[in-house]
Amino acid sequence: MVRKFSWHCIVYLMGSMVSPMRTNLKLKFNIEFRLAFLVLLFCGCSVTAKDKLNVLFIISDDLTSTALSCYGNTVCKTPNIDSLAERGTRFTRAYCQGTYCGPSRASFMSGYYPHATGALGYKSPRPQIGNRVTWSQHFKNNGYYSARVSKIYHMGVPGGIESGGHGADDEASWTERFNSKGPEWRAPGDGETLQNNPDGKKPAVGGNTFVVVEADGDDLVHSDGKTAKKAVELIHRHKDKPFWLGVGFVRPHVPFVAPRSYYPPFKPYSKMVLPPKIPGDWDDIPKAGINYCTSSNMKMDIRRQKKSVGGYYASVAYMDAQVGKVLTALDEAGLRDNTIVIFTSDHGFHLGEHDFWAKVSLRDESSQVPLIISAPGKKPAVCSSFVELLDLYPTLAGMCGLEAQKRLQGKDVSKMLDDPSHSVRDTAFCVAPARKGFLLRDEKWAYIQYGEKADKGIELFDVKNDPKQYVNLALKKKYQPVVKAFRKKMAAKLVAVRENDLSRRK
Ligand SMILES: [Ca+2]
433 preceded by cis ω (within 30°)? Predict the structure, then answer.
């Protein structure tokens, strides 16, 4: 509204200035006055735009950064996400706070670590945080239109998408909210259940299962196509007032369902290359470190493993195309210069590394997330400083001029967008509540313990020399000082995350 009014004024003033040539002193003064007013108006406009930057938060589900071409994948091409990376800051050491949907999403939306709220499962954090404002709610309370399309807080995939419900949502976070119902594994097409189906007799099934469907029809058959369409509509509808828009895509979360047109680059599936299989890879890690999904317990032979990778990539390519539609809408609405765009995922995903599949694990493939922040006026960069998803709330609130809240457990990382060497922490912290796993990750080490007192085992990887984390050094005598130091640091971190205004309230 303000912007429209300002442009009308400018057109009027410019028009008056070039109209009838009058040269007396009074007119000269009048023109000077009008020029001064114009300058003020332009300043006013830029302050308005700066103060009222929009936030477009795009989040994929179960997306590992290793599947993106801007993070180095040469098979799975993601041109739209890459284009955002080319104009924004791409973070190479961003970590989620929980390695599955529920706790990760509750954490970055509420501003607390999972163990601060105890929101460790698939529920809304609202009962724990009371009337404290969530990330989007903070913007809503400051005059923003705040909306989500599809999955921002936890929603069951595929079940919750099939039913089209709100899932573990928090209504108070939004001015409006929209769900994107989709057929998921029931989508017509060629479907195959890869998991626990060694004799191939099962048809495509529902639930949290590795299923690939090469689907008939176009993008709009599925949830993410509908999500992009709704997001495009909302961007155009709300282009004249500030918005915080959350766009939640559910791919590449299982089932791997995408229109047929996204599959050719990955077929025949036999050409997909699996990560190396190292004999004895699990021999030096505790039982708790073996992921809940493995090639053997999912009964997936090499053919099925390769098809899982190809099916996942097709889902990523489909999701990337939907991201492209949303970014195009932003440009068409003329909002690129006053919108901060964030692209990320709630956690990563294993695609056969260590014969692990899916999430939950605390290895980099699962705990590290893709993160791109593109903000007006900032130069493109790659930043390798540690960032946590928990940092998004205070960072974006600060960048948009909203009041800082001491209670937030994340840090403002906005200086990294001006200087990629800027750092706010020397370690990232992440948890896998289902297996009482805790990760501290610094530049040289990945330290993982199972159990609050490490009673279920420890892993220590030298990520400088062993980036794929094959050799657990935790039991080697030489590394006991490192383990000891990390145990101490972890114990302090577990105390610190619980020391907050929620605990002091009790
Ligand atoms: Ca997820």
Answer: no
Q: Using N-to-C axis directions, what is the helix angle for 101-110 and 392-399, rounded to 10°?
A: 30
Q: What is the structure's pLDDT at 12? A: 41
CA of 156 to the centre of ligand 1 (A): 9
Looking at 141-275, list the stretches that DSSP marks H as alpha helix, in order from N- to C-terminal side. Answer: 159-163, 223-237
Q: Which amino acid is at 37?
A: F
State in Å: Cα 33 to ligand 1 middle.
Answer: 58
In this predicted model, what pLDDT tens digit does every residue of 394-406 receive, in sequence order? 999 999 999 999 9
Question: What residues form DSSP beta bridges with 246?
Answer: 57, 148
- CA-based nearest residue to 104, from 343, 430, 335: 430
For the record, the structure tokens of 7 come out as 């442009």
Distance from residue 42's CA to the centre of ligand 1 (Å): 44
Per DSSP, the three-state class of 373 is strand
- The Cα–Cα gap between 365 and 306 comes to 17
Tell me if 245 sits within 8 A of 147, measured CB to CB: yes
Rounded distance from Cα 124 to ligand 1 centre (Å): 15
Spatial distance between the Cα atoms of 81 and 76, rounded to a whole number of angstroms:
12
Residue 293 reports pLDDT greater than 70: yes
Q: What is the pTM of this model?
A: 0.90
The CATH number of domain 54-421 is 2.20.25.100: no
How is residue 390 annotated by DSSP?
G
* CATH classification (class only), 432-505: alpha beta
Looking from the CA of 333 toward its CB, the CA atoms found within 13 Å total 23
Task: Find the 50 Cα to ligand 1 centroid distance in Å.
Answer: 33
The 3-state DSSP class for residue 441 equals strand
State residue 190 phi and psi, 5-degree precision: -100, 105
Q: What is the pLDDT of residue 32?
A: 52
In angstroms, the CA 410 to CA 404 distance is: 11
Residue 30 has what pLDDT? Answer: 55
Of 355, 346, 269, 261, nearest to 309 by C-alpha is 269
> What is the 270 CA–ligand 1 centroid distance (Å)?
27
Span from the CA of 342 to the centroid of ligand 1 (angstroms)? 17
Q: What is the residue extent of each domain of the chain?
A: 1-18+30-51, 54-421, 432-505
**CA-wise closest residue to 208 among 218, 195, 198, 221:** 195
Find the 254 Cα to ligand 1 centroid distance in Å: 10
